[in-house]
Structures are given as C-alpha cells and as structure tokens.
TrEMBL record:
The keyword Protease does not apply. This is Flagellar motor switch protein FliG. Coiled coil: none annotated. PANTHER family: FLAGELLAR MOTOR SWITCH PROTEIN FLIG (PTHR30534). Residues 220-326 form the Flagellar motor switch protein FliG C-terminal domain. NCBIfam families: fliG. It comes from the Bacteria. It is found in: Bacterial flagellum basal body; Cell membrane.
Length: 336
C-alpha cells in the first residue's frame, strides 16, 4: 500500500485501528455513526498485509515502537468482523459485515473487461458457444456488442441464441471459466501486440520502390481493388508532395539535403515545385542550382528517383521528429 497522499483518511484510520488491536478498535467504533463504521470496516477488511514502513508513516507518534521488529501489519476481513462484533454486538454488526463481504467479493470477468475487444474475440472465438455466451453475458453491453461484432455471422447467431436461453449458472463454473480466460490473458501480457501489414505498410513499402515497380503494382491494384489503391495513394508521400510543405519546412529540409542530390532530384520535378524550392534558398544558391540544371546532360531516371528517395526519407524523418508537416497525395496537410 502506498504512503502519504495516496492513502485516504479512511484507509489511515483503518491502519491505526488494526495496528492497535480489536479491543481498541471496538472502543473507537462505539464513538462512530453507522456510515463511518461501514466505511472504516470495509477499509480494514481490504488491508490484508501492510508493510511496517507504511505503518510507521501513518503512526508517526509510535515510530520507535513500530520500527525494527514490529513486522508487517495483519488486517483483513476477520479482524474487521471481530472488532465490529465487539463494538456493536453480533446481531447489530451482522448487516454491516454482510455488506462488507459483498463489497470485497471478486467480480467475475473483471479483468477481461479491460482487454481490447478484438483481442478478446480472438481469445474466445474457438471456445464452445455456450462458454462464449456466459462470458459475454458478464460484460457491459457495449463491450459485449463490440466482441460479438468480431465473430463470424454463424457464431454470432449461435451465441446470441444461447445468451437468450441462459439460466442460472453455478458459481463454480463461472469462476472456472474466468480463471482459464485470465490465465490466457496473463500469458500474453508480456508480448506486445504489433500491427503487421495493412494499407499503411503497403504505402511505406511503395514509397521505397522504383517508379516502374510502383506503377506496375498500382496498375494491378486499380484493376482488382480501386478503393484500396486510392487509400494507399493517399497514404503515400512522393517527391512532388513537397509542394505541400510550408516555406519554413522546406528550409528545414534543405539544411539536411546535399546540393548534388537536390539538383539531380529537381531534374524531373514540376516547375511549381522547383520554384518553391529555389525560392527558399539564397539568390546565389538558387542561381547555381539553376545553372547546374541547365548544363546538366542526360541523367538516368533511376538516378533521379534515387536522389528523390533520399530527400523523401529525410522529409519523413523530420516529420516524425515533429520538425516539418507534410501532406500526402490526398492533398490533406498532416500536422505533427
């Protein structure tokens, strides 16, 4: 248990009463109203073992007494129940103790509720539909609906039908299902989930191939799945997309680009992009680049694309670092 500000007043009171014994706690309970007794009694029942250092921090006036061999503090439900019985009498304490026990009773599938819906669906979809029905019936309705949506249609129907026919289920069965599911979840918690594939991965891949390969793949994609092809295009970043970078971003980019790569890359660029880039360098540098372009002989297209790719990679790195904002083929500016 935490120390200081992380402990509530009720928790600190519970530690004090538990550390000073049942008789003392009983005397204090006699001075409390019923609601205070409920709160402190519940807090005592949840104490279990509290480290001696925590006890020292809460009971500073007894620092010397609790230091060293004082050992851990043992609280828990039994301590709270005995103290309540001493303070109020067994009959009067019975209702409070019952409320207290209900409050600390474990809730089935509590841990499962925090698992991502797709992940949970993958865990349980191979289970018997009756087992799935039991699990979903214990989840909040929105969570259950999200998980159900991930199942195949025939399984969806079977599970819903079984939920509608669920009757009283013995607690032992629910606890067993919960325990098995929790073990499966715990066994995967150390492994970080990683998104593999997807249109983002394809866009990243095509950003790094030559123009001929890109055009060939897009040609096939547009025949088979035009919508997917358009999604990938919108996620891609090509050299001409530098037109969407603001002047400050262009200047930041050019600081990291070699003049030789820039000159070759501009060989096939549009006039608008060339004007934008030359407008963000000094007049002398712009004149030198323009002169180099005019006297430059024929250059292999693969060399031009290679220089453009180098600049694209620098631009993407600067975007990830939050130093520039770039726009994709879809024409939307991306702010980072």
């Amino acid at each position: 248990m935490a120390v200081g500000d992380k402990l509530t007043g009720v928790q600190k009171t519970a530690i004090v009463l538990a550390s000073l014994g049942e008789q003392f706690a009983a005397e204090i309970f006699k001075q409390m109203d019923e609601e205070e007794i409920r709160q402190v009694g519940l807090a005592m029942s949840k104490l279990n073992q509290v480290d001696a250092k925590v006890v020292d921090a809460v009971l500073m006036e007894f620092l010397e007494k609790l230091r060293g061999d004082s050992g851990p503090l043992v609280g828990g439900s039994k301590t709270a129940q005995r103290a309540l019985a001493l303070a109020m009498g067994e009959d009067a304490a019975r209702d409070i103790i019952a409320d207290m026990e209900r409050s600390i009773e474990p809730v089935p599938f509590e841990r499962v509720k925090t698992v991502d819906s797709k992940t949970l669906a993958s865990f349980i979809k191979s289970e018997h539909p009756q087992t799935i029905a039991v699990i979903l019936s214990h989840l909040p309705q929105m969570k259950a609906a999200e998980v159900l949506r991930e199942f195949p249609e025939n399984l969806q129907y079977d599970v819903v039908l079984r939920i509608s026919n669920l009757d009283v289920i013995p607690p032992g069965i629910i606890e067993e299902i919960d325990a098995v599911l929790q073990r499966e979840i715990v066994s995967t918690e150390g492994a970080e989930a990683k998104q593999l594939g997807g249109v983002e991965a394809v866009a990243e891949l095509l950003n790094n191939v030559d123009k001929a390969t890109e055009e060939h793949i897009f040609g096939r994609l547009e025949e088979d799945d035009p919508e997917m092809a358009e999604k990938i295009r919108q996620l891609m970043f090509v050299f001409e997309d530098l037109i969407n970078v603001d002047d400050r971003g262009i200047r930041t980019l050019l600081k990291e680009v070699r003049n030789e790569d820039l000159t070759v890359a501009l060989k096939t660029s549009s006039e608008d992009l060339r004007a934008k880039i030359l407008g963000n360098v000094s007049e002398r540098a712009a004149a030198m680049i323009q002169e180099d372009l005019e006297v430059m002989g024929p250059v292999r297209l693969s060399e031009v694309e290679q220089s453009q790719q180098k600049i694209i990679q620098i631009a993407r790195r600067l975007e990830k670092e939050g130093k520039i904002a770039i726009g994709g083929k879809g024409g939307e500016d991306v702010l980072v």
